[in-house]
Each structure stands twice: as structure tokens, then as C-alpha cells.
């Protein structure tokens, strides 16, 4: 049986050309580059391979290359792919064999918010979560809640930092969450592209934290939309670690939903 190699893009720095100026480290969104002993050094596990640092180098010492992922990363990729398979002829099949990962559309009753000044009895705000699972690695690419959906793709820290996450961001949207730093970014990129390609997505909102590494989620979504050959309205919402919305913009590259 032929083994499929999983490749990952990273940046490579020519040590002979590098003068240690640090401009590349400043432009690196994932904190993958450090200056050590007067030379720029890349941590491949953090590098997103997007090459934001390439243009910053005055010595032209940086290039983007493809490398084969380590065996552990490939195994994670394969396992995550298995988790994410939505069986076309039977959505009742459980992702990864776990009942908790079965695709479900949850009933949300927005009328409950009218009770007790916007809170249900006991002072608890109603949940706006309308789908399960929410982790990108687990959800099937053809889950019913993805069709004709407005997606909220959120960094998994976002709901903890932003107290009003459900009411102000999640209401009426299907939720996907992940971490661009700790999870398999290449797998996310490929899976999101399949989701965009195989479903009619009306809009996408990305909620990410202000910390530099979290911007990788925006890059992943942009890449996935481009790979799907779809034009989807995209809104970017930056959240501060203090729990505030510190920036929101519509991405100019994705302006036509084709609806």
C-alpha cells in the first residue's frame, strides 16, 4: 500500500545571509522566530508557513519550503481525519466511535432570554449553542448544521475571555472551535476547505484573541476559503484578554457570497 506523505510549509533561514537584525521576528504572527546567538532561528512546530516574515528580511535570507511532517504529527492528522469523517450515507455513525461526537443540531429557544430581564430562572443566561460537536477535528464535513449556515470559527480561548460570547457572537451561528498554535494547523486548513467546498456557507466570522499566535486562525480560514474556490463574506473579530472586542473588520477579499 502506498503511504501518503503529509507535507507542511515552513520558513527556512539561510544562516550565512542572516545578520540577526530581528525584523523577521517582529513580523512573525506565531512567535516562531527568535534571535539566538545573533542569528534568526525558527521553531518549526509554531511556524504557520505563510511567510509573513519573508518580505521583512533585508538580506533575502528567508524562503518558504515544504517538509514532511514528523510521524507523530502524521498520526495526529490521520486520527483527526477519522474523527472528522461525516459518513455520506449515514450521519448516525459516530465520529471516532464516541457517542459524544455524533453530529447533532441543538434546539435553541431565543424566547427564553425575555424571561427575568434577559435571563432564565435562577439568573442563568440561556445557551445559544446550536450544534454539536464544535471542535474542528471532530465535526463531520457534511454535518447538517453546516448547510446554509452562518459560521462562527472561534479560537478555543475566546469564550473564556469574552463573557458575552453567546449573546453577541454565537446567536444564530454554527460554531467551530480550535487552537491554531497547539493543534494541527495543516489539518485544519484542509478540513475547513472541504467544509467550505461541500456546503453552502452564507458567511464566516472568525473570533480570535489579540495574542500574536492566535492570528494564525485568521490565516487558516483565509487559506481554506481560497482553496475552496468559494467567495464567502468574512468578518474578523479580535478579542482582548480582558474580555473586550478590540477590533472588527470585514475582509475585503471575500465580498461575494454568490447567493
Kindly describe this structure.
By secondary structure, the chain is of the alpha/beta class. It folds into 2 domains: 7-68, Alpha-Beta Plaits; 88-250, Rossmann fold (3-Layer(aba) Sandwich), CATH 3.40.50. The chain has 6 helices and 11 strands. It has helices at residues 23-27, 71-84, 158-161, 165-170, 185-198, 216-228; strands at residues 7-13, 33-36, 39-42, 62-68, 104-105, 131-132, 149-155, 174-178, 201-209, 234-239, 245-250. A 5-stranded mixed β-sheet has the order 8-7-9-10-11. It has a two-stranded antiparallel sheet with strand order 1-4. The chain has a two-stranded antiparallel sheet with strand order 2-3. Strand 2 and strand 3 form a beta hairpin. The radius of gyration is 20 Å and the shape is globular. It starts with 6 loop residues before the first strand and ends in a 9-residue tail after the last strand. The model is unreliable at 76-97 and 253-259 (pLDDT under 50).
Task: Name its key features.
259 residues, alpha/beta, Alpha-Beta Plaits, Rossmann fold, five-stranded mixed β-sheet, 11 strands, 22% helix, 23% strand, disordered C terminus
Amino acid at each position: 500500500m502506498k503511504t501518503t506523505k503529509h507535507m507542511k510549509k515552513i520558513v527556512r533561514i539561510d544562516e550565512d545571509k542572516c545578520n540577526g537584525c530581528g525584523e523577521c521576528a517582529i513580523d512573525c504572527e506565531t512567535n516562531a522566530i527568535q534571535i539566538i546567538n545573533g542569528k534568526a532561528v525558527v521553531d518549526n512546530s509554531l511556524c504557520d508557513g505563510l511567510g509573513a516574515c519573508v518580505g521583512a528580511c533585508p538580506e533575502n535570507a528567508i524562503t518558504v519550503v515544504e517538509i514532511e511532517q514528523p510521524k507523530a504529527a502524521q498520526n495526529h492528522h490521520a486520527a483527526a481525519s477519522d474523527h472528522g469523517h461525516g459518513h455520506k450515507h449515514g450521519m448516525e455513525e459516530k465520529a471516532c466511535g464516541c457517542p459524544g461526537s455524533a453530529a447533532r443540531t441543538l434546539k435553541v429557544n431565543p424566547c427564553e432570554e425575555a424571561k427575568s430581564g434577559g435571563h432564565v430562572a435562577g439568573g442563568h443566561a440561556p445557551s445559544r449553542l446550536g450544534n454539536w460537536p464544535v471542535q474542528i477535528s471532530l465535526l463531520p464535513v457534511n454535518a447538517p448544521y453546516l448547510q446554509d449556515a452562518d459560521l462562527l470559527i472561534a479560537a478555543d480561548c475566546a469564550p473564556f475571555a469574552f463573557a458575552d460570547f453567546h449573546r453577541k457572537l454565537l446567536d444564530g451561528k454554527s460554531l467551530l472551535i480550535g487552537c491554531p498554535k497547539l493543534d494541527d494547523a495543516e489539518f485544519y486548513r484542509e478540513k475547513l476547505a472541504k467544509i467550505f467546498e461541500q456546503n453552502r456557507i452564507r458567511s464566516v466570522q472568525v473570533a480570535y484573541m489579540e495574542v500574536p499566535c492566535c492570528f494564525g486562525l485568521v490565516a487558516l480560514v483565509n487559506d481554506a476559503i481560497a482553496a475552496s474556490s468559494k467567495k464567502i463574506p468574512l468578518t474578523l473579530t479580535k478579542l482582548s484578554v480582558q474580555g473586550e472586542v478590540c477590533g472588527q473588520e470585514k475582509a475585503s477579499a471575500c465580498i461575494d457570497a454568490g447567493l
